[in-house]
Amino acid sequence: MKHNITLSPDNETFEADDGESILAAARRQGFNLPHSCQNGICGQCKARVLSGRFEQAGHAEQALPAEEAAQNHILMCCCFAQSDISLEVPGYRSGKTPPVKTLPARVASIDYIGDTAVVRLDMPKKPSFVFLAGQYIDILLKDGSSRSYSLANSPSQTAQLELHIRRREGGLFSGLLFGSEPAVREKTVMRVRGPLGTFTLQENDDSPLILLATGTGYAPVQSILHHLAEQQSPRPIHLYWGGRTERELYFAREAAALIGRLKNARFTPVLSRAPESGQSARGYVWQQALADYPDLSGHQVYACGSPAMIVDAQRVLCEKGRLKKEAFFSDAFSPAQADSAAEAV
Question: How far apart are CA 336 and CA 37, in angstroms?
Fold first, then answer.
């Protein structure tokens, strides 16, 4: 049985099948609703049911407190319609995001930096591919599955897309990139779908920015930094990029150069296994950010990495750093999406 899901206040409608989550149905039909981990961990897909019957599945207590659930708040990634539903999704307005398209792409180059592949894809000239800094694409595989990767280039450069892909044991797509005879190489043609995601910069705000990234979670942050540099943004910006060792900060020089293009920006590498004699900060990115900025009440924080990092950063920065909950924006990729470009160390 199919159920109609109506988005308020835009009155847009899509169908959800029995056994299909509201978020999965929306994505299948090209609706770019807010989401991140897709596992009920990050809370980015929170919405409120205005009318209709539904079932909230999974272990959502952490991202969806009991008092919110009692007020008909749901996590769309693990919520299933049992009737037609009217849904209010905070911050979603269809006219503000570029349309989702499925297009062919050709591999222009692949640069291997340790366990990370920097892949550049040539896109068709028409129709042009339009995206917002911080969004991602799905690469559609021949077996019908897909893998999600954040876009690392500036949204002003749409002719060629840049992806940062970490090598993963058994990865469905990364396994095609790494090895003695990779199946994906220069001139390989594939299909991509996007842009997707709502991890995008709040343009109508000039608050100081804290950017937290771990591993290849740096990719969407780089896109945001490109956009800010091109806009000649005067906002105070501090990038914290973390990994276990220096080897995992594969684009450290490029990150420093990009930060140097901004008027009021700083870059702090953070290593959880930093040598005692090293120059990098030791620990986790959110720990270093809190040490540098004990009062974050006037800041915005953008965090991209593993669900564990996202959960810890939001909890600690809001509780101890007085960061407003609505000023924390995140993009988390779980192990279930093992090839995702934003999955952290």
Answer: 9
